[in-house]
Amino acid sequence: MTGLSPADSPYYDAEYETMSRDRLADLQLELLTETVAFAYEHSALTRKTWDAAGITPADVRSLDDFTEKVPFLDKDALRRFRDERKDPYGGVLCRDQSELTAISSTSGTTGDPTLVPEVWGGGFVGRPAIMYRDFWGMGVRPGDHVALFLFTFRGPTYGFVQQLGAIPVLFDYGVDEIERLLRCSLQYRPTALYNFGGSMINATEEIAARAGIDPRDAFSSYHAVVFAGEPLGERARRLADAWGIELFEHSNVGDVTACFECPAHDGMHFWEDMAYVEGIDPLALDHRDAQPVSGDRVRCELVATALSNRVAPLVRFRSDDLVEIDRSPCVCGRTHARIWTIGRKGDEVVVQGASVLPVDVWAAIESVEACRLGLFQVVRPNRESDELRLRVGYQDTPEGRLGSLVEEVADAVRAAVGVEPVIELVANEELLRLGPPHKIPRVTAR
Ligand SMILES: [Zn+2]
Description:
The protein has 446 residues and is α/β, with parallel strands linked by helices. The chain has 14 helices and 20 strands. 31% of the residues lie in helices and 23% in strands.
């Protein structure tokens, strides 16, 4: 498959990517109407939730109807349904299990992993969007090699690269694979790398030096290196800059679709023919209490509805993610909205009245040489706390120097957030054992 536009176009699908906001709103209403009818008919959890609220798809004739009447779904509802009905898909699967072609899962950083059922080639309606448009925009073209550094989401990523006419070069996500990635990069000259986060970039410095490889040579063929899941610290950014890497941030939009930075690097676009996204007041009790947050770039909680997924569409999924959304045009020419992720609602700790999210202390911790991998946890038994407790990973420090390392970390954190932290140091290897292989929970109760 090639793009719907010529190879020299910056857009994979110029017509849809630059569609007017009015046309986009019409298209969304049309897709939303189809989605709610489909989900109500085929998803046991959606039907149960709507029945409890006393509505049917016939009650949803406009976008206003949708926001006023349709109840939220959340992760807890899916998990409850899964456990009560012994349904591994949490009541959202709309197909017979035998029709599935693959099952992947979320990484499970903040709870049990959620299963993601897939039907390759037949799971979506509408025009090919997710990742095709984004990778094309980063400069990937048919015939290119694309390096994939993957954990649980192998299926769709592998397939979409092939569909785009590019050749996936596969790696497992882990520090042990970095040397092989560097060697293969010199050999196959890939044009994109997905996905390579801060701890991997930080680890590359040492591994490349040991292997006698100059990262600037290894990464010189790449137009784009995509990172996801966690904010990137200044140290990783500095290294990437020095190696000539153009970084693109990527995230998910309420488990409904993906978002990627465009070449303008000013927020991540999500495709609004794939997802209907709302920003609500994070403290709202339920849909009747949830005033839409108006204005661009206002901190809000993200609620998303799948518009083209016909395998396991989520309808009005309340994500617990704090974001900012901007629907104004982007300088890249795309008209679809952009998003900035701030953190998870449940990750906030209020210390002596000051709100602290992991992102607020990240750069401070990474700035300390022995803590440069940026591995840490906020220890938070309750949302409100008298002290900011941090468990911080370190390396290369003899026992006798740990006391001064604690002080160095505390100084950096205090300067960043204005609160005196209580620091517990833990060896990096030990901290890494706490999480799924690629990242650790950033907030923990104990
Ligand atoms: Zn843009």
